[in-house]
Design a protein that fits this description.
By secondary structure, this protein is an alpha+beta fold. It has helices at residues 37-97, 107-114; strands at residues 2-6, 12-16, 24-27, 32-34. Strands 2-1-3-4 form a four-stranded mixed β-sheet, with helices on one face. Strand 3 and strand 4 (32-34) form a beta hairpin. Mean pLDDT is 80; it is low at 1-7.
């Protein structure tokens, strides 16, 4: 059978086999042969839809990550401003009264003083 395969780029391919003539359609996008142009377009559109869905999900994850990163950045800025206010008040206290004494009872208390 001799069948003709159509390429989207306009090139043609002829294949010789025994039997009846039939026409095949080649998709450059899927790299496969199909019996009808509808099957070819259906397979291509299914793959394109899947790729479009993946791109949408990726864009959504990127936007979500950016929103969370902005939230973390705002929280850090809030922490820095609170830390500066604390250090200012502590410095004023130490200048006025000489020293500030506190008790450290756990590792968590060390973390807030030494940024461990």
């Amino acid at each position: 059978m001799l069948y003709y395969s159509y390429s989207r780029k306009g090139t043609t391919k002829f294949h010789l086999q025994k039997g009846v003539y039939s026409m095949k359609f080649y998709s450059e996008y899927t790299k496969r042969l199909y019996d009808s142009p509808e099957d070819c377009e259906k397979a291509e559109s299914a793959i394109k839809d899947a790729n479009l869905q993946k791109e949408k999900e990726k864009a959504q994850r990127t936007a979500e990550r950016k929103a969370k990163a902005d939230e973390v950045s705002k929280a850090y800025d809030s922490y820095v401003s609170a830390r500066r206010a604390y250090e200012k008040v502590l410095t004023e206290f130490c200048e006025k009264y000489g020293a500030y004494h506190t008790s450290i009872t756990a590792l968590n208390d060390l973390v807030k003083y030494f940024d461990l």
